[in-house]
Amino acid sequence: MKKFLSILLAVVMIVCTFAACGTKKDAETSDLQYIKDKGTLTIGITLFAPMDYYEDGNNTDLKGFEADFARAVCAKLGVEPKFQVISWNAKETELNAKNVDCLWNGMTITPERLESMSISTPYMANKQVLIVKAENAEKYAAAGSLAGKTVVAEKESAGEEVAQSDKFFEGANYTAVDPMANAIMEVASGTAEAAVIDYVTGIGSIGEGTSYENIVMVESAAFADEEYGIAFRKGSDVTEEVNKIIAELMADGTLQKIADEYKLGEQLIVK
Directed axis angle between helix 65-77 and helix 238-251, to 10°? Predict the structure, then answer.
């Protein structure tokens, strides 16, 4: 009898040990629990209007569609948003090293990114556009017209892929910049004849009422449509939770209200 009880006790201890190990492993692999435990969602961004920007030299109050969208999601997650400016070129390194918990920055969903990261449901439509000084809009309206000229785009961005692969830019001299806001500055200063940027960025950054009133989009330069998503670590369980919250914010009109405030209402993907 004593021998049986000893064996039974040993079996129970082994089962408990494995159960404890399983619980510990689950906790270690839950990205959502990791974020909730620390109480913050560290969000990797770059600065560009109308997504994430500071107004009138005020570097304490981050404004923008993405900033307000992230705050609304974090409120429902029960954590505080912590915005961290990163180099877009190093975004995946920052994410996988847990220096940031997500990339929430007008990020175009691509097959390559879906392979290496966990990405939310798309929430905003976008496309790449060509921008030039207003007096050059007709001059650079046709494919090949930028041959021998300098074209810039943000490094590791969808704009860079277009500038390097689309036939419109055949013969052009491509130069990468970081961040996207610098691409606009290059055109304004005359160090580049043209830049490829997000259409959404163009809405809030160039033309009438902005600091770059003499910069325009070239209407005849049409590139493929895109969609924005929020990127989390591959296999992260945060993605599913955020997708649920996005659906709630869509349903109750919160996301539409935020988008309308930044003149992006028509770009919102409503599902």
Answer: 110
Residue found by looking up tokens 């590139």 in the block: 223
Same-domain pairing of 93 and 150: no
Are 230 and 203 contacting, i.e. CB atoms less than 8 angstroms apart? Answer: no
Output DSSP code: residue 237: S
String of DSSP letters for 84-131? EE--GGGHHHHHHTTS-SEEEEEEEP-HHHHHHEEEPPP-EEEEEEEE
- What is the chain's mean pLDDT, rounded? 90
Same structural domain, 132 and 218:
yes
Cis peptide before 81 (omega within 30 of 0): no
| Domain membership of residue 177 as a residue range | 127-225
* Number of structural domains in the chain: 2
Give φ, ψ of 206 to 5 degrees.
-130, 160
Q: What is the pLDDT of residue 29?
A: 74
Chain segment 108-137, per-residue pLDDT in tens: 999 999 999 999 999 999 999 999 999 999
pLDDT in tens, 170-183: 999 999 998 899 99
* pTM to 2 decimal places: 0.81
Query: 183 and 50 share a domain?
Result: no
Q: In this structure, are 131 and 201 located in the same domain?
A: yes
Helix segments in the chain, DSSP class H: 2-29, 31-38, 65-77, 91-96, 111-116, 158-165, 180-189, 199-205, 238-251, 254-261
Is the pLDDT assigned to residue 213 strictly greater than 90? yes
Nearest to 41 by CA among 12, 72, 14, 19: 72
Residue 204: which pLDDT band, with cuts at 50, 70 and 90? confident
Domain with 139 in it: what CATH number?
3.40.190.10
Closest residue by Cα to residue 45 from 14, 8, 71, 82: 82
